[in-house]
Amino acid sequence: MEWLQRLKTIYDIIRPVVDIALLAFLLYKAYDLLIKTQAVQLVKGAGLLALFYGIAYLLKLSTLQWLLTILGPGLFIAIAIVFQPELRKIFIRLGQGELFHPDSKPRIGQLEAVITAAEILSQQRRGALVVFPRRINLKSIMETGTRINGEISSSLIVAIFEFDGPLHDGAMVIQNGRIAAAGCFLPLSEQQDIRKSFGTRHRASLGMSEQSDAVILVVSEETGAISLAVDGKLYYDLSPLEVQRKLKELLDRGVRGGESEQTTAAPDNAVGSTIDDGKDVFVER
C-alpha cells in the first residue's frame, strides 16, 4: 500500500536520528550515574588497562601483551571487588528506576512548613529526619515505616517527632507534596572517616544520600543543629534561611535533571574536610 510505503520511507529517513538520540541519552545517563556513585575511577582503571593493551598490540610488545592477556581477567575481577560498593549503588539506582522516574517537589509553602517544624524541633532539642526524594523511587524505604499520606503541616511534623512517640526515631518521607510515610529506616553510611560526634541520624542521612539522589534534612537531638545531606555530603548547622534556599535549589535541580557534587557549594558557615573516598563532610567552625 502506498501509505505504508511512505511511512517506511519516512522511518528510514529519521531512523539514524532516533538511533543517535537514544544512544546519546543512554550515554549521558550512564555518565551521570557514574559521576553520582563515584564509579568513574572504575572506568578509568578499565580504560588504563585497555590503553596499555592497545600500546602493546600496536608496538608488538609480545611480552607485555602476553602478560596483560594472562592478568587481564584477574585484574578486571580485582577492580570489580575493590569497587563493589560503587557497583552495588549503580545497580540499586537502576533498580529504583532513576533513569525515567519523575518526581514532583513540594511547593514553597510546604517547604516553609517543614523548616518551621525543624526550627521548633531544634529549639526543643528533638531529633528529626526528613527525606525529600527527587528522581529515584524510595518505595522500598517507605515500606519500612508507616504510611501517612497526610498534608504537610508544621504541627503534624512536630507531633510525629514527639519524644517517645512510635515514629520518633525513624525518618519521614515527603513525596508529591505530602507526608508519604514516617518511622522509616534508612541505611547507614559506609564512609569510615565520619566525625565521631555525629550520631545515628547523621550517619543515616549520609547513607541515604549515598544510595539515592534524595535530599535529607537532619535535626540533631544533641545540639539542635539543622543540616542537609545530599550526594554523600553533609551540610552541617545551617540557618533556617540557608536550609530553605539550599532545599529549593537542590529540589529544583533534581527535578530538572540532577546535580553533580562539583556544582554544590558549601555554605558560608561551614568548612569541608576531605575523607578517604573523596566525599566531603561539612562541619561547623
Automatic annotation (TrEMBL):
The gene is dacA. Residues 276-285 have a biased composition (Basic and acidic residues). GO terms for biological process: cAMP biosynthetic process. The chain crosses the membrane at residues 13-30, 42-59, 65-83. The keyword Glycosyltransferase does not apply. Gene3D superfamilies: DNA integrity scanning protein, DisA, N-terminal domain (3.40.1700.10). The lineage of its organism: Bacteria, Pseudomonadati, Spirochaetota, Spirochaetia, Spirochaetales. InterPro entries: C-di-AMP_synthase, CdaA, DisA, DNA_integrity_DisA_N_sf, DNA_integrity_scan_DisA_N. It comes from Treponema primitia (strain ATCC BAA-887 / DSM 12427 / ZAS-2). Keywords: ATP-binding, Cell inner membrane, Cell membrane, Membrane, Nucleotide-binding, Nucleotidyltransferase, Transferase, Transmembrane, Transmembrane helix. This is Diadenylate cyclase. Belongs to the adenylate cyclase family. DacA/CdaA subfamily. Residues 256-285 are annotated as: Disordered. Probably a homodimer. Residues 84-240 form the DAC domain.
